[in-house]
Design brief:
This protein is of the alpha/beta class and 338 residues long. The chain contains eleven helices and 15 strands. The radius of gyration is 20 Å and the shape is globular. It binds nicotinamide-adenine-dinucleotide.
């Protein structure tokens, strides 16, 4: 049994909580939040984009509520510390939890800056406990299918790939301050930047344009990831859509012998076009939030270091995002240093 302590019981903390409840090998034993009501499982004021929890309170029987993250890390019965606080607090808390000898799962973006993320990656490389950044798209069934299709060369080479992740403005104050959230370019679009890096490796350069609407950081971006001699790759991301737009994520990938099209807002989200026909692709009826947690618990139980995503991968994605910001500021492509 892996005994879990979750720090930050907002949208993601409660999402993780519910997923641990589905895994027989995991048990939440403590939760921590500076907001005492949330630490006691009262979620009546939550906001979120995908799969917002329907119940306003969590079943807290047998779970210790704490308002101090450090007390949670110090508890001997906690094996795994799961960090779901706002982004600027990730790196310091994760480093402390690793130093306390715990396994650590940390929400994305790994840190507010690439420098902080690298510091955390360094600590993770030396730690006794396992560390995994919660880059959920690498585990999202239809996205894992795409990765596998490329690894197995099922439909020939990729000629072009485009990604799109758009939503209405976030409803929580810390997201609306770009100094904290990094704007949509860091908070939202990082999912696609990381996935591009996962599929095709680091681009030679990025070329980005975008604008700031309300955070002081980039709230909507269009990026071309430049792969000389390779596929044509781009992504659009933003959270400045009009109220009521909601949230959607998409990809369209053109292989030599097929086109794959994913749209989270469709009943059959993944379609494969080939030989004049379109075929819906069925994937596991779960999501990346469950799959990433299930994977990390299995890694801890079997003593197998997580490989699907590492701290270095998550730090690299933030490095690419910072290059995208620089490109938008200068109006020029920015090289990615390897
Ligand atoms: N993987 C995804 O798709 C995804 C989706 C949404 C959010 N996130 C990420 O998850 C993180 C949390 O986002 P959220 O939407 O859940 O935010 P949120 O505001 O809903 O929840 C954060 C919670 O942390 C608590 N908190 C703040 N500082 C704390 C501290 N030092 N100790 C203990 N508790 C503290 C707050 O009181 C709040 O309850 C962010 O980094 C965000 O980018 C990831």
């Amino acid at each position: 049994m892996v005994r879990v302590g979750i720090i930050g019981m907002g949208f993601m903390g409660s999402m993780h909580f519910r997923n641990y409840q589905k895994i027989p090998q995991a048990k939440v034993v403590a939760v921590g939040d500076i907001n005492s009501r949330r630490a006691h499982g009262d979620l009546s004021d939550l906001w979120g984009n995908i799969g917002s929890p329907s119940a306003a309170s969590l079943p807290m029987e047998g779970i210790t509520p704490l308002t101090d993250a450090r007390q949670l890390m110090a508890r001997p019965e906690v094996d795994l510390v799961d960090i779901c606080v706002p982004t600027p607090a990730h790196a310091a808390l994760a480093i402390e939890a690793l130093a306390a000898g715990k396994h650590v799962l940390c929400e994305k973006p790994l840190a507010r800056t690439a420098a902080d993320a690298r510091r955390l990656a360094q600590a993770a490389s030396k730690a006794k406990g396992f560390f995994m950044p919660a880059m959920c798209m690498r585990f999202w069934p239809q996205w894992a299918w795409l990765k596998q299709s490329i690894v197995e060369n099922r439909y020939g080479k990729v000629r072009a790939a485009t990604f799109r992740r758009l939503g209405s403005p976030p409803g929580v104050a810390w997201y609306k301050d770009g100094a904290n959230s990094g704007g949509a370019v860091l908070d939202l679009h990082i999912h696609d930047t990381d996935f591009v890096n996962f599929l095709f490796g680091a681009p030679a350069a990025v070329f980005t344009c975008g604008y700031s609407a309300f955070t002081g950081s980039l709230d909507h971006v269009l990026t071309q990831y430049l792969y000389p001699g390779g596929p044509a790759v781009s992504a659009e991301g933003g959270w400045d859509m009009a109220a009521g737009f909601g949230f959607s994520m998409r990809y369209t990938v053109n292989f030599e012998r097929a086109t794959a099209d994913f749209d989270s807002s469709r009943d059959r989200p993944l379609l494969l076009y080939a030989d004049g026909k379109s075929e819906p692709i069925s994937c596991a009826a779960t999501d990346g939030y469950f799959e990433e947690i299930n994977y990390f618990i299995a890694c801890i139980q079997t003593g197998r270091r997580p490989e699907t995503v590492t701290a270095d991968d998550a730090a690299a994605a933030i490095g690419i995002i910072e290059a995208e910001v620089k490109s938008a500021q200068t109006g020029r492509p920015v090289k990615i240093s390897s």
